[in-house]
Design brief:
Helix content: 25-40%
Number of helices: 8
Largest sheet: 7 strands, parallel
Low-confidence stretches: none
CATH superfamily: Aldolase class I
Number of domains: 1
């Protein structure tokens, strides 16, 4: 979704417009980029999205958080463990991990994380997964298992039309990619979500 040419200008413009629209948290996810690309992109995003306005989460790479001055990291299977991520980023930064789909992962409630991502809620086009979508009912079941106080971020295939049901089922928040970033104007689309969901 990020163009290969004019990448810096694109990210600077996108980050600035999202900040102006009121975005307060963004995860930067780049599974295939080199360290140099991750660092370059992250530096641009941090510059365009000041820390006093936006918390930036980096996918996978807990080792780059300090260098980029990001606010946290999201780690899954195949990355460093949540315990190691917490050791690397410290107590004051955000650590999140995958919590489960049809059930919570064994022991996940004991991990030193700030939030658990759950899903896929619906079929997704932005991430390769073989898991069966759980729908709002699956979110409700995971909320019951996690208890009332855990932050559960529901992910995958969520649209503005389906988000209310997912939140009503017990999600603390929804993670949205395609529904916003494939819009012609992501910042304007984000404003629609805020107006509809509060």
């Amino acid at each position: 979704m990020i163009p290969s040419t004019g990448r810096e200008a694109f990210l600077r413009r996108l980050g600035g417009s999202l900040t102006a629209a009121g975005v307060t948290l963004l995860e930067y996810r780049n599974k295939t980029g080199s360290d140099a690309e991750l660092i370059a992109d992250g530096t641009i995003l941090r510059s365009a999205m000041p820390a006093e306005n936006v918390k930036l989460i980096l996918d996978d790479r807990a080792d780059l958080i300090e260098q980029l001055d990001f606010d946290g990291v999201h780690v899954d299977a195949g990355d460093v463990s949540p315990v190691e991520a917490r050791r690397l980023v410290g107590a004051k930064r955000i650590v999140g991990t995958f919590g489960g789909s049809d059930a919570l992962l064994p022991g996940v409630l004991d991990e030193p994380v700030d939030y658990l991502a759950v899903g896929p809620v619906f079929t997704t086009t932005t991430k390769h997964t073989y898991k069966t979508p759980i729908g709002p009912e699956g979110v409700r079941r995971l909320r019951e298992l996690a208890g009332p106080d855990r932050i559960l971020t529901a992910a995958a295939g969520i649209t503005l039309a389906t988000a209310p049901a997912v939140l009503a089922a017990g999600a603390s928040a929804v993670a949205v990619s395609a529904a916003i970033f494939r819009a012609d104007d992501p910042a304007a689309e984000f404003k629609k979500w805020i107006a509809a969901l509060g």
